[in-house]
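HUMAN: Would you supply a protein with fold tokens?

ASSISTANT:
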Amino acid sequence: MAPRALWKGDLKLANIECPVALYAAASSAERISFHIVNRKTGNRVRREYVDEESGKPVSEDDKVKGFDVGNDTFVTIEPDEVSDLVPANDKTLSVRRFVKNSDMDALFFDRPYYLGPDKGAEEEFALIRESLAAEDIHELLRAWELKHRHRAAECVTQHTLFRKETRWPGYYYRGDAMKVDDANWHVLTVSRRDPKTGEYTMEKAPCYHLVGADEK
């Protein structure tokens, strides 16, 4: 049996847009479930909607949403009218940027879902999917190089902020630590980055000069 869509709308990336549907990635069909039964007879109890005044059952076709305007007077709203009341921006998923998995709150991973094309939109969905992927190994390598450069620049920045001494007119300048501090300069800066939080742990290690000052 085909999965039932939980939500339908449009996926938009740049100038490409296609109708999509949201599905649950996990099913509860195999879970153990319980039914309400009559303790005396052992028969299942059936729930049905009845008219409040007549007490007669109401068929599925006669059920409709209604808003109470007072004195038990209701204004009925048809299903298509409810859909028209939903703002257009709630029906479109616009891809603006990508975030790291570690930046997402674990609350959003309570239930897994997946997005797929709605009927007749397979080609448009495939076009968006392919545009997000590398076309060949060279594009994939280029993406890794950019990520590596970003990480290297981030690491250098963390090391620079950690060291308090200034080398001038040479390596770098610290306006908040203008004193030339040889004791803290002749050390190694060691860092560790937590892959989950992105936080750096910094420390200084001894630096041993293989060439003595008298041998230079």
